[in-house]
Amino acid sequence: MMRIFFFFICVHLGFVGLSQAQSDTLQLQAFPAHLQLYARDAQDSATVPVQGKVLQEGFSTIELKVFQNDTLWKDLQQTLAYQNGQADFSFEPKIYAGLYECRFELWLDGHTLAACEDSIVCGDVFLINGQSNSHPNASEYDFNSEFCRSFGKHTNYDDYDPADTTWGLSTPRGWCNDCYFAVGTWGLRLQELILKEFNMPTCIINGGSGGSTISYNLPDTTDRMNLSTTYGRLLYRATKAHVADHVKAIFWHQGESDSYETESSYYAARFDTLYNAWHQDYAPLQKVYVYQLHPGTCGGDYQHKVREIQRQFKQTYDDVEVMSTVGLVGHDGCHYNDDGYLEMAQWLFRLIARDFYGSTDTANIDAPDIRAVYYQDGGHTSIAIDYDLPVTWPDDTLSASMENYFYLDDSYGNVQRGYTINDGYTVILELKNASNANLLTYLPNSTYNRLPTKAYEGPWIRGMRGVGALSFYHVPIGEPSAIRAKVPKTPELLQCYPNPFNASTQIVFRVNKSGLITLTIFDLNGRKIKTLIKGKKNAGQYQIVWDGRNEKGITVSSGTYYVRLKTVDKEIMRKVVLVK
To answer: Which segments within 388-525 are labelled E, that is strand?
Structure first.
């Protein structure tokens, strides 16, 4: 409603932007566009350049008025100095991030309106790219807000018209070749979550191309802004929107079209080319979030190989986070229904909230990933899988059992049962017969031996917040002594006792490296209950008592809680149960 009101004000005052009649009087080199979002800097602000020339003598002053939600906020004035019948002017006001819109008015001598533009905001910028799951089309989800913006057209495989350079409100449309401001279902849902949780306006530009290979998404080395390429189209839109050097993160959802023998072999190298191009053209890019593929019928026989390459991205690149898709609802073998895409956004949102908005909801929000795989005993009758986050072993569902989807070398059927130990940080696979297998796979390709050719719908290994654990392929199985020697030492919460507890529990923990640590209690929903320790600690063993109270000194209700120890290089959690 505020956007419509501002638009009416500009029209009522005479025009929106610079009219032809007034172009004889004024020439603008820089002025905000209708609905433009300016990317915020580290001070939560953005400079809005207003520059031009007055082309007719006779005016003595030019005045820039900036309104916030129709209230005059800044009033700047300059005396005009003419040379050869023209007078230059330049303003650089700052606007700030928040839930308000700005209107810019230029006045000559205080009574002649020379230019007017409204609905200007300051916020954050993100990009989406990939194939069809990067730009899904909503069937029922239809959120709309004046604080969720996009720029230009989504054209899929079509060449881009360089004239399509307008700002607008984001829509959940996708899978289209000629639609303005389409960010897709989960893209818009991310904007909605950021808006509601952190009061932050956002711009998302989605450049996905359905069914595209990673090769198709690479830049043209002779013309990075080639409008016949998906890379060039996205870069062009970001550049014309004046946000290319302010992109906080890129979200990448792609890989099904590379899950064939030849293409999968080049996937890592091609992603490296794309990653380096992003960091060159969108510097200083801060994060890249990659969705690991979901097992399904889309693509070829090497999905498991592509998923393994994607899993390793976060080990190869310091600024890459890999999010799982296994366990999302509504998967049909290739795409998802609205609920699946909305859940996809929710899983990713928690990482974005942590990385960019200082969220304290950080417990178990990542996709669990393996740290080590090894035979638990010298007789090779069981295998241990160490995870970096606690996981759960699922019950059988849909006539399927989790143990059937672990392959020793390339064979199934030797896993008798699975379960977790070590508070969920370790999965144990008990074998029917002693094995000399060298490689372990979790979730092979959909057309691979035991996995059904229809969409695989679980069961799944999940983290404590329901996020599916990353699948893996051909991970070496080590010997107990050798693999434990390779696993880096991590800080450990040695013990919480008694557990379950009534009234209080003693937490004993060890720090391996001196530095800043925090010891915090969270509930099952990731809400912080109390910070027990925050400060520098030397390497050593410590203990502290938690009396079951929150930050306000109020005793919390009975239930399950998590104790999180976070150091300079590691994070680990343990579960405690309060029983009254």
So the answer is: 391-392, 406-408, 415-421, 426-431, 439-442, 462-463, 472-476, 492-497, 505-511, 515-523
User: Does the global pTM surpass 0.85?
Assistant: no
**Which residues neighbour 400 within 8 Å (Cβ) at sequence distance 6 or greater?**
456, 458, 459
Question: C-alpha 236: how far from its chain's center?
Answer: 22
Residue with tokens 């895409």: 341
Of 486, 506, 531, the one marking the end of a domain is 486
Instruction: State whether 114 and 131 are in the same domain.
Output: no
Query: What's 95's domain CATH number?
Result: 2.60.40.10
Tell me the CA end-to-end span of the chain in Å, nearest whole number: 51
207 and 343 fall within a common domain: yes
Write the pLDDT tens digit of every residue in 246-302. Answer: 999 999 999 999 999 999 999 999 999 999 999 999 999 999 999 999 988 888 889
Looking at 121, 138, 167, the residue that finishes a domain is 121
B/e letters for 271-285, b = 16+ CB within 10 Å, e = fewer, are bebbbebbeebbeeb
Query: Given this model, what pLDDT does residue 494 score?
Result: 61
**Distance (Å, whole) CA 209 – CA 230:** 7
Number of domains in the chain: 4
Distance CA 76, CA 66 (A): 8
d(CA 306, CA 471): 10
Q: Is residue 534 situated within a structural domain?
A: yes
- For residues 158 and 32, state if they share a domain: no
User: So what's the pLDDT on residue 5?
Assistant: 42
Enumerate the β-bridge partners of residue 115: 106
Instruction: Determine the pLDDT at residue 524.
Output: 76
Q: Would residue 362 count as lying in a domain?
A: no
Residues 86 and 133 in one domain: no
Instruction: Kindly report whether the peptide bond that precedes residue 498 is cis, defined as omega within 30 degrees of 0.
Output: yes
> pLDDT tens for residues 321-334?
999 999 999 998 89
Q: What is the largest CA-CA distance in the chain?
A: 96
Q: What is the pLDDT of residue 369?
A: 96
**Which range marks the domain in which residue 522 is found?**
492-578
Considering the domain architecture, whether residues 246 and 375 belong to the same structural domain is answered as no
Weakly modelled stretches of the chain, pLDDT under 50: 1-9, 11-16, 19-21, 447-453, 484-491
Q: CA nearest 435: which of 471, 398, 399, 410?
A: 410
Please check whether residue 511 is in contact with residue 540, taking contact to mean a CB–CB distance below 8 angstroms. yes
